[in-house]
């Protein structure tokens, strides 16, 4: 009989083999948004196919023809299971964020390094560590001869850049990926490290804004006071997105928002971290967003507009007295249920054009209009089953969380497959995903294996 001791014992018995495989996977620099790494993405998919085939999976690498974007391969695998059992679709992503800024890494970003029980590398957690710990738990069950449901696996290489390929392939894939349950391992535990069942996530939208002035950089003494200054103009333009109290100033941005129920809000507050915990984790107080709105609402149920990067002119040592010819900014928005991504983008575009500084040209590019946020019913049968299983992983039991982060394709997969989504992951704030020195603890890896080893038999 499989219990919570099975996966930890398997890990200890096969530790070197598991770590060798994990390190190999993480070592592929699979930055799916960068054309230079397209070959690395293909190599990672080929390696994953070789990992899955001995476990009884039929595997296939799928790449669509695109008019724009990169043909980053999608891995689909399927293993027949027990007759009459539900079908499980497992989703993850093998692409990672860029490693920049490289000079802030303490270890090489694509050379996995084990230090004090934690693996440091880009993708060590997000999402290679999370999904590979699940696959390792599944492998342990298969090697033990455990009877499992039919398992289908989708691993994409563009989650960090909009999921263009999977969106293109979904209509064609739809008949093949029908399932009863959609499992996702790309989320976090509660702040106290209790297992968390994700009952909702925000949607996401992102684009690039460019302001252009003169044909070339100009001498700031000769042209100061005459030429429009895109760097200065960008500062004014970005500042116009929010009011002085931190609330969003874009007209119609908030149209249609569906507020949380009292039950959802109570569950979310039960698992929320305190302001003091947040400051310990991040080094800053939780003072972003609108004044007067509590921390849980701002993090779980409110939309945001964030500036992800601003670039213009000279940034090196010393002084270079120029008026830059252009300035660019990377902007993202997190959306909540009820907001239409198309209408939100229209509102953003109208606002930016209306506030474009005089004498400058504004353009929007690299537009990902995005997908909406979603919330799931906390009383669903699949959540009750997950709560029972997670109590074996941690005697304290599970909590419900509504994550501020986004996995855009989850809502699409839910609609296309008819599957009940179940998002459980074991990330921590200290993992520093999307930042230099990303890491994943071996204890977290084993918890991911334990979750897989318990939930898959429970779904037979």
Query: Taking Cα atoms only, what radius of gyration do you get, to the nearest Å?
Result: 23 Å
Q: Which geometry do the CA atoms define?
A: globular
Summed up, the helix count is: 14
Distance between the termini: 14 Å
The count of strands amounts to 18
The CATH topology of the largest domain is what? Answer: Aminopeptidase
CATH architecture of the largest domain: 3-Layer(aba) Sandwich
Low-confidence stretches: none
Main sheet attributes: strand count, strand direction, barrel closure: 9 strands, mixed
Give the % helix.
Answer: 25-40%
Helix/strand-derived category reads alpha+beta
CATH top level class name of the largest domain: Alpha Beta
What does this structure look like?
The protein has helices at residues 6-13, 15-27, 38-52, 128-143, 164-173, 220-223, 230-239, 262-271, 275-282, 295-301, 341-354, 381-393, 409-417, 442-458, and strands at 58-62, 74-79, 87-93, 113-115, 118-120, 150-156, 181-184, 196-201, 203-212, 218-219, 304-312, 322-323, 326-335, 361-371, 374-375, 399-403, 420-425, 439-441. It has 460 residues and is an alpha+beta fold. It has 2 domains: 6-201 and 373-458, Aminopeptidase, CATH 3.40.630; 205-267 and 300-371, Alpha-Beta Plaits (2-Layer Sandwich), CATH 3.30.70.360. Strands 1, 2, 3, 6, 7, 8, 15, 16 and 17 form a 9-stranded mixed beta sheet that branches. Strands 11-13-9-14 form a 4-stranded antiparallel beta sheet. A 3-stranded antiparallel beta sheet has the order 4-5-18.
């Amino acid at each position: 009989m499989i219990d919570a001791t099975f996966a930890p014992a398997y890990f200890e018995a096969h530790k070197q083999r598991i770590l060798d495989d994990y390190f190999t996977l993480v070592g592929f620099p699979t930055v799916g948004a960068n054309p230079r790494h397209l070959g690395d993405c293909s190599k990672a998919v080929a390696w994953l196919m070789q990992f899955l085939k001995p476990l009884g999976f039929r595997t296939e690498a799928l790449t669509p023809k695109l008019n724009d974007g990169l043909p980053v391969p999608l891995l689909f695998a399927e293993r027949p299971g027990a007759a009459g059992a539900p079908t499980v679709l497992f989703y993850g992503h093998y692409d990672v964020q860029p490693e920049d800024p490289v000079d802030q890494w303490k270890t090489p970003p694509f050379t996995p390094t084990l230090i004090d029980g934690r693996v440091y590398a880009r993708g060590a957690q997000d999402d290679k560590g999370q999904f590979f710990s699940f696959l390792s738990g599944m492998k342990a069950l298969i090697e033990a001869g455990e009877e499992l449901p039919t398992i289908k696996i989708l691993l994409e290489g563009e989650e960090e850049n909009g999921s263009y390929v999977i969106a293109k392939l979904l209509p064609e894939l739809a008949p093949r990926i029908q399932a009863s349950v959609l499992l996702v391992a790309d989320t976090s535990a509660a702040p106290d490290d209790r297992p968390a069942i994700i009952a909702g996530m925000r949607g996401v939208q992102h684009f690039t804004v460019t302001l252009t002035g003169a044909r070339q950089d100009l001498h700031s003494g000769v042209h100061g006071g005459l030429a429009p200054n895109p760097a200065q103009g960008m500062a004014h333009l970005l500042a116009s997105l929010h009011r002085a109290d931190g609330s969003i100033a874009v007209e119609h941005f908030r149209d249609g928002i569906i507020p949380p129920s009292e039950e959802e809000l109570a569950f979310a507050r039960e698992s929320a971290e305190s302001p003091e915990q947040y400051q310990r984790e991040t080094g800053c107080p939780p003072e972003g967003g609108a004044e007067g709105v509590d921390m849980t609402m701002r993090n779980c149920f409110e939309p945001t507009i964030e500036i992800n990067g601003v670039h213009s002119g000279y940034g090196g040592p010393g002084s270079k007295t120029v008026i830059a010819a252009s300035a660019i900014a990377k902007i993202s928005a997190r959306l909540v249920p009820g907001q239409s991504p198309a209408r939100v983008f229209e509102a953003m575009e109208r606002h930016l054009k209306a506030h474009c500084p005089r004498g400058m040209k504004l353009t929007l590019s690299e537009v990902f209009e995005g997908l909406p946020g979603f919330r799931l019913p906390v009383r669903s049968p699949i959540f009750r089953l997950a709560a029972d299983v997670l109590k074996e992983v941690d005697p304290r039991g599970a909590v419900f969380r509504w994550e501020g982060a986004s996995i855009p394709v989850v809502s699409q997969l839910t609609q296309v497959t008819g599957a009940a989504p179940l998002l459980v992951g074991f990330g921590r704030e200290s993992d520093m995903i999307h930042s230099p020195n990303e890491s994943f603890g071996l204890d977290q890896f084993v918890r991911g294996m334990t979750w897989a080893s318990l939930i898959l038999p429970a779904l037979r």
